[in-house]
Write a structure and sequence with these properties.
Number of helices: 10
Strand content: 15-25%
CATH architecture: 4-Layer Sandwich
CATH class: Alpha Beta
Bound molecules: zinc ion
Structural class: alpha/beta
Low-confidence stretches: 1-15, 311-320
Distance between the termini: 60 Å
Order of helices and strands: HEEEEHEHHEHEEHEEEEEHEHHH
Length: 348
């Protein structure tokens, strides 16, 4: 028996060793794990997921931006549980939270996908439109990178070995992402909710609450009361908030509701696990943006917290440049006007 099994075990070990890591799996509680995207992941992956392990079922919050990233997380799951994933939660309709839905359905045919009622139209309409825009835009980004590699320079600057490797990685990820998008089924939630939903996983519950409109109309947060852990989607991120399509005026109130839940640890979709003090900082920032208050204190508070604001995932210099905050403030009037036109602040 030993001889029969050894080659298989060896092959599995080699496969595991060969696959570059997409996520750091961080145990926050015996039943709750954060899947935090590593820097420069091998897949088109940007958003974190939360994994809640019950006696009878597993719940996963958010499904990644590509089936490849979703499958990477599915392959990593045995490190934390051998129980089946029965529940998926989409915190909102944005691509990095829903484009992996089909991969989870393939892996777990009995899985139920839960989202706010607005996702029933937002996923087939807005997420599908975004997929189509990306299919149109990616060939240009791919050609651009091919040219950079062929010429050995970007904007006249020669590529050193590290930059060449980074461009090659970025090119490879985009080629695979385009191929994935071209056949991507758009899968909306099959269970929709309005206000709250509590899911019993056996020995642990997950409480879903609609707190939007804020980042989007359908923002859900997922709280695990037994562990005092909260997954917040993009309502909080390790960087400046993504305002496009948002209801800025409703965001601080949404954060007040989540603060009242009493979480000790919070998983944003982008960046590391944070504590309630960062939620408080974010709440104050969104209130200041809504009231056009001065933002200088936030530059200092972000810098003190060590938060970079150079990119959505928190890249760039810690504390960020003043221009990052200036751009944020400058965008508020147009975001607010667009929200009024689109009814983004209407109760959803
Ligand atoms: Zn988002």
């Amino acid at each position: 028996m030993t001889n029969l099994f050894q080659p298989a075990l060896l092959a599995m070990a080699v496969l595991t060793a060969q696959e570059p890591q997409t996520f750091d799996l961080e145990q926050l509680h015996p039943r709750v794990h954060a899947a935090v995207v590593v820097p420069n992941p091998p897949h088109y992956a940007f958003a974190n997921s939360l994994i809640v392990v019950g006696d009878s079922a597993v719940l996963v919050v958010d499904t990644q931006q590509s089936p490849g990233a979703a499958r990477a997380l599915i392959r990593a799951l045995p490190a934390v549980t051998d129980r089946p994933v029965r529940w998926i939660v989409n915190t909102h309709w944005h691509a990095d939270h829903v484009f992996g839905n089909s991969a989870w359905q393939e892996a777990f045919p009995d899985v139920r996908i839960v989202g706010h009622r607005s996702l029933r139209s937002d996923v087939p309409e807005r997420a599908a439109a975004y997929r189509d825009e990306q299919i149109e835009a990616l060939p240009r980004a791919i050609r651009e990178r091919e040219t950079w590699l062929a010429e050995g320079r970007v904007n006249g600057e020669p590529l050193d070995a590290a930059a060449r490797a980074a461009v090659g990685r970025s090119l490879d990820i985009r080629r695979r992402y385009l191929a994935e998008l071209s056949g991507l089924p758009i899968v909306p939630p099959d269970i929709v909710m309005d206000d709250t939903l509590t899911i019993d996983l056996g020995g642990v519950t997950a409480r879903l609450t609609h707190v939007g409109p804020a980042h989007t109309g359908g923002d859900l947060v997922v709280y695990v009361p037994d562990a005092r852990i909260l997954a917040m989607g993009d309502l909080v991120e390790w960087g400046t908030p993504w305002l496009e399509g948002a209801c800025v005026g409703g965001w601080a109130a949404a954060l007040d509701r989540t603060t009242a839940m009493g979480a000790d640890r919070i998983l944003p979709s982008h960046g590391p696990v944070v504590g309630p003090e960062f939620l408080a900082l974010y709440r104050d920032l969104l209130a200041a943006l809504a009231s056009r208050g001065p933002l200088q204190p936030f530059r200092d508070r972000f810098a003190a917290a060590g938060v970079g604001v150079g990119g959505a995932a928190g890249g760039g210099a810690a504390g960020g440049s003043s221009s990052a905050f200036d751009r944020l403030v400058a965008s508020v009037p147009s975001v607010t006007a667009a929200a009024e036109r689109a009814g983004a602040c209407a109760p959803s």
